[in-house]
Amino acid sequence: MLRNARELSKSCETWCEADAVNERIGRPAGLKFTKIEKRFGSLYALRRLDLEIAQGECVALTGRNGSGKTTLLRVASQLTRPTRGELSFPGLKEGTVPAIGYVAHAIMVYEELTAEENLQLFARLLGIAEPRRRALELLEATNLAPRATSLVRTFSRGMKQRLAIARALLNDPGVLLLDEPATGLDTESMVWLTNQIRGLRDQGRTIIMSLHGESALSQLAGRAARLDAGALVGDTRTGATFQSVFAMGEA
Amino acid sequence: MRLLANTTALLGKELQTEFRSRELLITTMFFVLTVITLFSITFDAAVSDPRNVGPGLLWLAILFSSSLMLQPCFLKERTNDTLSALRLSIGDPFAIFLAKLVANVCLLLVTELLALPIFAVFFNVKIMRVFPQLMLVFLLGSIGIAVTGTALSAISSQARMRELLLPMLLLPLLVPILLASTEATAALLGDSPALRWDWMAILAAFDVVFLTALWLFGEYLLEE
Questions:
Q1: pTM, entire model
Q2: In chain A, at which end, N or C, are there fewer CB atoms within 10 A of the end residue's CB?
């Protein structure tokens, strides 16, 4: 497991050195949410949320279902435009967007394509110079190389999740957003995932992961924040303890 | 250049997934052949010369089957949220529309090509002498249907009554295409075949206007 985590880290570092053709920047960046508000009709998903995440920080985002975690991650990935407020990336030139890797609830890959075809497709769209080489590197690093030519619909949940992570890492993202990445994973896959995220964190990438409770993944975070009804209600940066942030409102 | 590269990559994916499953093509083919057969049975006894109503019925069949074909265009991207993955990977979202549009035109043309001989037999028309001109009408008509349908598919995939919304919006919007294509086809299948440039110009104008609108506003259709 640890060897694979090291391979994944090495693969990303090599890619960094090779200076990917991607127009985006593969360097870590911070994220600053200023008075972010997101409404869906009359429903508030985020309420004037202020949150600053430093470059290279690993943050566990927690909260009940519907508390706004996914919306916040989608705003961070710029898939969702906030109704009000501003998102900026401290550490980068104004107007520049960092390379963002996003692992959502859904696997975000095509089940009718093979693992290799999926990664090659997204590598091409990202403008990566040698899409096949990059795809094979990541398949190797995520232990999916033996199933590279199998259709994704034949994969187990754990394998699909690995492929989802491989897709998110294609452009060597400086910011990694993980939306409940452990959902549906068995113990073995969970250990694998924990090692991967540890490896990526140790490279200095900014990581935000939404989690439901304390787990092996939350142990990796240097900071925990809690959302409730779209507002920030707890943050270890402002004095709360990890335990209190995870326990808040769960009683 | 990036737009072209992204469109090509996505078009390859669209065609690869369709030809791997052949779901849309087989369903649409079956539907269009059934409709043409039913129309021919219904109208054969009632009209003296089925060629008078044939072009209109052919285009109605194409229109109905296209609403069936275009429905899953963006809907299938919702299954695993692959649309978000595309939006994260791509600079210009117009490439997503362009790839889907070209794939839809290709699939529509294949359907029309396969339906044409059946139509010729049932409605007693000679198609070989005007085949190139007919293909031009089909191409312009199919582009119009695909542009409108692709845009509406993006809208309807986010709506609640998505299965009903697309045909409800698509069919009235395609009335100009139906009229112009029917008239152009009827002129080609008449006793003295001629390509009616006035109707062809209407088809081309429709295509250009809707394609420009899609290029300008397509990005907003993909937003959540």
A1: 0.86
A2: C
